[in-house]
Write a structure and sequence with these properties.
The protein folds into three domains: about 90 residues, 3-Layer(aba) Sandwich (D-Maltodextrin-Binding Protein, domain 2), CATH 3.40.190.10; about 80 residues, D-Maltodextrin-Binding Protein, domain 2; about 80 residues, Alpha-Beta Plaits, CATH 3.30.70.260. It is built from nine helices and 15 strands. α8 runs antiparallel to α9. The longest helix is centred in the last third of the chain and has 12 residues. The two termini are about 30 Å apart.
Length: about 270
């Protein structure tokens, strides 16, 4: 049975993403940190990994983007997962009794209006599912958690309120990762990372290569390089498969100009 790694504990949104990508005939393996997921994949302790890289409200997941650049992984599938936060508590607890709510900091920020309306104190934990474990083991019935419906099932909690996030269109983008390149038929999206020389117009020069070959960029993000102060890696998503003629010519031109390029993966565009 294929072992799929993710950051979090049972019931995390990442586990839900795994089932949507791979189906139920797999073994999800949770880790405390994303770095531990990456290490496990590198060592072959798991067969694949699924990590969130972007949220429609909170933006990119910086630590996971850095891991994609640092490791020789290959992204071969993407999923856009609607995030629907629920308020969960022990059976029999009423919503008016809740004083303190546990969850991941991003989930808490996405539900801030609801928490303020009900005068609930937000308490940050490492992940949403871990918060449910805290509530399950707590003797304090004035505490609740923000997490997924899946968590209610796993931890024996009651859903007090569904869809409590402030934005209805709260979507997280996940990538499925492998240690080796996976050939995807009809791939129509490619993720790349590149660096430029530290001179005026260097970034514009690279973007010009994409423009000249009608390669549409759906994302452009920058991340600092820790060992090179004020130097940056740029992450781009290109609406084209890696093997397309336009992509191959564009990449060759970028490389010929002396720029560093790392191919992060090529896959079919996920439905958002």
């Amino acid at each position: 049975m294929m072992r799929i790694g993710f950051q979090g504990t049972r019931g995390a949104y990442s586990e839900e993403a795994i089932y949507q990508i791979f189906g139920k005939e797999i073994e999800p393996v949770g880790y405390l940190l994303s770095e531990e997921v990456a290490e496990a994949l590198s060592k072959g302790e798991i067969d694949r990994a699924v990590l969130p890289v972007e949220n429609s409200i909170a933006g990119n997941v910086a630590v996971n983007m850095d891991l994609l650049f640092q490791h020789d992984f290959y992204a071969y599938a993407e999923l856009y997962l609607p995030i629907k936060h629920c308020l969960l508590a022990k059976p029999g607890v009423q919503i008016e009794n809740i004083k303190r709510v546990h969850s991941h900091p991003i989930a808490l920020s996405q539900c801030r209006p609801f928490l303020r309306e009900h005068d609930m104190i937000p308490t940050a934990d490492r992940d949403t599912a871990g918060s449910c474990q805290i509530i399950k083991e707590s003797q304090d019935d004035t505490q609740a958690a923000i997490a997924s419906k899946l968590c209610a099932e796993y931890y024996g909690l009651t859903i007090l309120k569904e869809n409590i996030q402030s934005q209805e269109n709260n979507i997280t983008r996940f990538l499925a990762l492998s240690r080796e390149k996976v050939k995807i038929e009809e791939a129509n999206k490619t993720s790349l990372a590149f660096s430029t020389e530290h001179r005026a117009g260097a970034l514009l020069e690279i973007l010009g290569y994409f423009k000249n070959h009608q390669l549409n960029l759906t994302r452009l993000e920058s991340r600092p390089i820790p060992n090179n102060p004020f130097q940056y890696i740029f992450f781009v998503d290109v609406q084209s498969g890696l093997d397309s003629k336009e992509m191959q010519i564009g990449l060759q031109e970028i490389l010929s100009a002396g720029h560093l390029v790392k191919i992060l993966g090529s896959y079919q565009l996920g439905k958002s």
